[in-house]
Design a protein that fits this description.
This protein is of the alpha+beta class. The chain is built from 17 helices and 30 strands. The strands form six sheets. Strands 2-1-14-13-12-11-10-9 form an eight-stranded antiparallel β-sheet, sandwiched between helices.
C-alpha cells in the first residue's frame, strides 16, 4: 500500500501499524461446510447499513465515501455518502472518482497472469531475463530474484518510497535506482511491502507486451470489463466534475489538500476509479476472471494470484484490531487471510488524502469496494468487516467504536512521544556553523538531491518539488524543517560533521518512515574537455567485470550524461577528457580517479580504473 504520511506521525497512520497501513487479504473458496454452518441471513442483511456508514463517517471525520457490494454476480449496493469536498455541498455518488492507490497492484498481477498464459513469461522467470539492466545491491539477489518475488513482497528490501513519492522521477529511473537500496533482510526471509518492485513489474509488462503498462491495462482489462471511468493519471480529472477531493488530518483537524500527481507510481498505485467500475472488477474476480462467461485468465494462473506466497506476522495490535483473523499472507497482488472461518482476499491503498479497499469472500460469492477521501483512516476496514458480518449473520459488533478506541490510544501515545522529545531538547545551544556554511547541495544515489538555500536570514531545505521546508535550529547541529505543504508535517534534519570540522552531509529523520542520508557535494569541475556525440557515448555503455576481483561495474547514460556505478557506492559522473578517457566526479570524490577505455574497431575491449596511490589500478573486461 502506498502511504502519503511518511513524515512525522507516519507510524500513527491508523493502525499504522498493524496492517491497516498495509491492508490484509485472502484467497480461494473455503470448504463448503463453512458456508453450510452459517446462521440464516435476515431478510434484508443491509437493514440499517446506511445509518451505520453515516455514523462511522462522523466518528472517523471522513468527508465522503462510496461503497459497492457484489453478491451472487449482482451489484446489490452502489452508493455514495457524504461530500466530495469538505465545506461544499456536492455529494459523493456511485460515479464519483477516487484514487485507489495500492489496490492497483491487483490489476498489475492480473496483467502478468495474462502474459503467463500467453507464454511470454513465467512466474519463476528471473527478473533479469526481462529487464537486462535490472540490478540490486546484492549480486546474488539480482541473479535469483523472480517475477513471483516481485509480486509477493519477499525481496528483502525496505520500502524506499522517497525514490518516487512527491518527486518527478520517472518509473524507469526509480527502478534503476533500486540498486542503491540496501536490503534489511535476506531474500524470501520475510514479508516486506515494496512499491518499487511493482514498478519493475510494470516495466516487465511493458517489455513483454510491447506497449506501456497503462496502455496494456486499458486494452486488456478496463475495456473488456467496461471500466469506462477508470484511468491512471490525475490529468484525466479535468474531463469530469465528479471527482472527490483529497483530505488529510493536519494539526488534529481534517483539511482539504491539493491533488498530487502520482503518474510515476504507475503499476504500484496510480489507478483512479469509481465504485461502479470497481464492482465490475469485484464481479470479475469472484467469477474466476471471466467476463460474460469468457475467461480472460486461465484457471491455473488466476488461482496463483490468490494463493498465499509470503507469511505475514500478526503482532499484538493486529490481533486486537481483528480477533477473527489468525493467519495472514500475501499472494500475487492480493493479501490473503482467514476471517470468521472463511477465506478473504483483499487489498487496500492509502495515498495523499485517499483510501481504498477491494475485498472478496469467494465462498460466499461476496465482494466489496470502498473508497474514501481521507487517508490513514480505519473507516474502509471497519466497513469491510461490517458488510461481511452482516452477510455471514455474525453477532452484531461495532467495529467502528472498537477500532477507533485503539486508534485514539495510538494517537495519545504518539503525542506523549512528541512531548518527551520536546523535553529532551537542549536549551541554549547554537548552530555549530554560520548559516551560510550549511547552504549547498547534498546528494544520494538513491534519493537524488537535497539543497539548502539561504533566503535572507532563513535556511530553506528543498527536496524535490514538494518538500520545501523552513529550517529552525533545534539544538547543536540539528534543525527542524516545517514543510510549506502542511500535509507533510515536520521533519528533523541532522548535519553530521567530519573529524576536521567540515559538513559531511545531512540526514532527514522521518521517524518510523526512516532516515534519508545525503552526502555533501563539493563543487567539482564538470566541464568536459571534448564533446561526445550520442553514438560515441552509446558505445561506451555496458557492464564490465574485473579481471582480478569478483566485481562488476556498469556505465549507463542518465539524463544525457555517462554515469559509473560501483556496487555499494554512489553513482559517479564521467567527465570526458578525451573520447576514451574520463575523470570521475560526484559527491566528495577526491581528484585522481580516471576511467580509461580501450577500443578496437569502434568496440570496447576493456576499461581501466585508475586510482590515486596507494590504491591499485583495476582492469575490467566487457560482460558480453
Amino acid at each position: 500500500m502506498l502511504r502519503s504520511r511518511l513524515g512525522p506521525g507516519y507510524a500513527l497512520a491508523l493502525l499504522a501499524v498493524a496492517h491497516a497501513a498495509l491492508p490484509l487479504a485472502a484467497q480461494s473458496p473455503a470448504p463448503a461446510a463453512c458456508s453450510a454452518a452459517a446462521p440464516a441471513l435476515p431478510t434484508d442483511p443491509l437493514a440499517g447499513f446506511d445509518a451505520y456508514v453515516e455514523k462511522a463517517m462522523r466518528e472517523w471525520e471522513v468527508p465522503g465515501a462510496a461503497v459497492a457490494i457484489v453478491r451472487g454476480g449482482s451489484v446489490v449496493l452502489a452508493r455514495g455518502y457524504g461530500v466530495r469536498t469538505l465545506g461544499r455541498p456536492e455529494r459523493v455518488d456511485a460515479h464519483t472518482q477516487f484514487a485507489i492507490a495500492s489496490a492497483s497492484k491487483t490489476f498489475t498481477a492480473t496483467l502478468l497472469a495474462m502474459l503467463v498464459d500467453e507464454g511470454k513469461l513465467r512466474w519463476d522467470d528471473r527478473v533479469t531475463q526481462h529487464l537486462p539492466g535490472f540490478e540490486l545491491q546484492d549480486p546474488y539477489v539480482t541473479r535469483e530474484l523472480t517475477l513471483r518475488d516481485l509480486l509477493s513482497h519477499r525481496s528483502g528490501l525496505p520500502r524506499g518510497d522517497f525514490t518516487w513519492y512527491a518527486t518527478a522521477t520517472p518509473p524507469a529511473e526509480v527502478v534503476r535506482r533500486v540498486r542503491f537500496l540496501a536490503p534489511n533482510t535476506s531474500l524470501r526471509a520475510q514479508f516486506g511491502y515494496q512499491n518499487i518492485l511493482y514498478l519493475a513489474a510494470g516495466e516487465v509488462i511493458a517489455r513483454a507486451a510491447g506497449q506501456p503498462w497503462d496502455a496494456v491495462l486499458q486494452e486488456r482489462l478496463f475495456r473488456p470489463l467496461a471500466m469506462t471511468a477508470s484511468h491512471t493519471s490525475t490529468r484525466h480529472f479535468a474531463r469530469t466534475a465528479n471527482v472527490a477531493t483529497p483530505h488529510e488530518r493536519i494539526d488534529d483537524t481534517v483539511r482539504v489538500i491539493a491533488w498530487r500527481n502520482w503518474d510515476n507510481v504507475g503499476a504500484a498505485g496510480a489507478i483512479n476509479s469509481t465504485v461502479t467500475d470497481l464492482a465490475r472488477w469485484v464481479r470479475f474476480q469472484l467469477d474466476s476472471a471471466r467476463v460474460d462467461g469468457r475467461p480472460l485468465v486461465s484457471a491455473a494462473s488466476f488461482v496463483e494470484t490468490h494463493t498465499p506466497h509470503t507469511l505475514i506476522r500478526r503482532d499484538e495490535t493486529a490481533r486486537a484490531i481483528n480477533p477473527f483473523t489468525h493467519i495472514s499472507a500475501y499472494g500475487l497482488g492480493w493479501f490473503v487471510e482467514d476471517y470468521r472461518g472463511r477465506q478473504l482476499v483483499h487489498h487496500g491503498g492509502n495515498l495523499d488524502g485517499m483510501a481504498s479497499m477491494v475485498a472478496l469472500m469467494p465462498s460466499e460469492d461476496l465482494g466489496v469496494a470502498i473508497l474514501t477521501n481521507l487517508d490513514a483512516s480505519g473507516l474502509r476496514d471497519v466497513l469491510m468487516r461490517k458488510i461481511f458480518d452482516l452477510y455471514l449473520g455474525a453477532p452484531p459488533r461495532d467495529w467502528s467504536a472498537e477500532v477507533l478506541q485503539i486508534r485514539n490510544g495510538q494517537l495519545a501515545r504518539a503525542k506523549e512521544t512528541e512531548k518527551k522529545r520536546e523535553a529532551e531538547r537542549v536549551a541554549g545551544t547554537r548552530p555549530l556553523l554560520a548559516p551560510e556554511r550549511y547552504a549547498g547541495t547534498y546528494a544520494d544515489s538513491l534519493y537524488g538531491q537535497a539543497e539548502v538555500k539561504q533566503e535572507g536570514e532563513r535556511l530553506v531545505l528543498h527536496f524535490g518539488p514538494s518538500f520545501v521546508g523552513d529550517l529552525e535550529h533545534w539544538h547543536f547541529n540539528t534543525f527542524r524543517a516545517t514543510w510549506r505543504d502542511r500535509s507533510l508535517g515536520k521533519t528533523f534534519v541532522h548535519f553530521p560533521m567530519t573529524t576536521d570540522a567540515r559538513l559531511a552531509g545531512l540526514a532527514l529523520d522521518f521517524g518510523a518512515g526512516g532516515s534519508l542520508e545525503f552526502r555533501r557535494e563539493e563543487k567539482a569541475d564538470t566541464t568536459p574537455a571534448v564533446r561526445l556525440s550520442a553514438a560515441e557515448q552509446r558505445r561506451l555503455l555496458g557492464a564490465f567485470r574485473a579481471t582480478d576481483l569478483p566485481l562488476v561495474i556498469r556505465v549507463e547514460e542518465v539524463g544525457g550524461r555517462l554515469k559509473l556505478t560501483v556496487p555499494g557506492q554512489p553513482a559517479y559522473t564521467l567527465v570526458a577528457l578525451t573520447a576514451t578517457r574520463f575523470r570521475l566526479t560526484g559527491g566528495s570524490t577526491p581528484p585522481g580517479f580516471f576511467l580509461q577505455y580501450t577500443l578496437q574497431d569502434g568496440r570496447v575491449q576493456g576499461v581501466t580504473l585508475e586510482q590515486p596511490s596507494p590504491r591499485p589500478t583495476l582492469t575490467f573486461a566487457p560482460v558480453r
